[in-house]
Design brief:
Blueprint (H helix, E strand, L loop, with lengths): L1 H13 L9 H43 L6 H21 L2 H9 L5 H19 L3 E3 L14 H25 L5 H17 L6 H34 L4 H27 L9 H27 L6 H27 L1 H16 L5 E3 L2 H29 L5 H21 L5 H21 L1 H7 L12 H6 L5 H32 L4
Antiparallel strand pairs: 1-2
InterPro entries: Phos_transporter
Membrane topology: Multi-pass membrane protein
Protein name: Phosphate transporter
Length: 510
Amino acid sequence: MSTTHGETRRDRARDPGDALKKPSLDKDLEKLVHVEAATRTLAGSFAAPALALLFLGCSGVLAGVYSGVSTDAALVIFAAILGGYMALNIGANDVANNVGPAVGARALTMTGALLIAAVFESAGALLAGGDVVSTISKGIIDPARVADSQTFIWAMMAALVSSALWVNLATWVGAPVSTTHAVVGGVAGAGIAAAGWSLVNWPTMGAIAASWVISPVLGGVIAALFLAFIKVNLIYREDKIAAARKWIPLLVAIMAGAFAWYLSIKGFQKIWRPDTTTITLVTIGTFAGVWALMRPLIRRQSRGMENRNQSLRRLFRIPLIFSAALLSFAHGANDVANAVAPLAAILHSVQFGDVAAKVAIPMWVMLIGAFGISLGLFLYGPKLIRMVGAQITKMNPMRAYCVALSAAVTVIVASWLGLPVSSTHIAVGAVFGVGFFREYYTRRSKRRRELVRRNSDPLPDIPEDEMMSRKLVRRAHFLTVVAAWVVTVPASALLAAVVFWGLTTFVPAF
């Protein structure tokens, strides 16, 4: 025994590193684990394109079965595939504005946000989406000036291709853009290529260009005002819980009233078209009812909470989730037309051989738009959701609620003033507004420190010069987004003109 132990000790003494070496079996297993992980990553990278292609194929099949077109069926099938592609890109890019702040504030997980947005986007499109849409988005061109239905069909094809490609590129770059503006640019570019510059309604184009400035500035200012109100009346109060019981029900009621007004105007067009008096009564009644309901709920929820900012964040979490759902519903009701209006226009022209100012949307066309938006959100939406929710500026439930509240209220203010606005620009502008207001508030450090002297959540001791130079909005993202907004309409228009020329030159007449 002693000899054996002695030999073992001598062997270890000769090569002390042997004890640290992995057996060959462990090395082989570790290599297999790395190979398996790489295989999963590679398979995941192919899964999204495969599902997207499957959906586009199903869109074509749906058109072939339910369009009722015998002649030129291939044209309608191709248009349905393009409409599905546009819907995928809307879901990948545009929906992030509705749920991104809630994800950034950690009120929703990414999975929860995707589920809520997909369900309410589809519900908004199918239940509240209009059954009749304008064939020429926003009255950009005059259909009476189009030479014939064949030219019109190629123009709508070119508009779909160009707008979808541009939104796809913007998503890849990481810039949330207005899909409405992309469609407007595509229609204008194709119209100019088809019949010249006189075809375009230039005053309408000028109003849309004005919305590049109006939408984000208005959204940012209103979001900053709401955040200032919350800071003064809730965050920097000695008794935060008492302040929350007083003001949170009011803020939630404002959100509910805004959505009641918006949905009365824009939604449920298939079953209900109220007059101005009815809309006003519905808005006031919703505001009063939600305010009366929220007062005892907030009081009960806040019972026993500590007098801290963390308690305020918890109280804002559920209203923020509901606001994300309502924003998604409203977006689905309003923006599904960006994907299906050109498709419906092409279908009408193929069926009847004319160009109509307004056309009906068959249910199978609406299904392509609704489910395409939801699928695009699931497959490609997380990138933009993270960017809007966390990478522009840091979010918490109170800031995120200001963004949602601003998006709802700004649409009402703009409609009342008759201003053309973009929901995408409003929401992202509200995110910028919250961030820039925080920078401004941070620079007023003396006033800020005086306000928080009695706060139970003391601020860290930050040097004065560091506080003055701190940037709470990432300038790289800001510049990227603004640049994408500015070039969306001209880029889509130029691309549509090129596509129209290619279609009319190389594709045989039908």
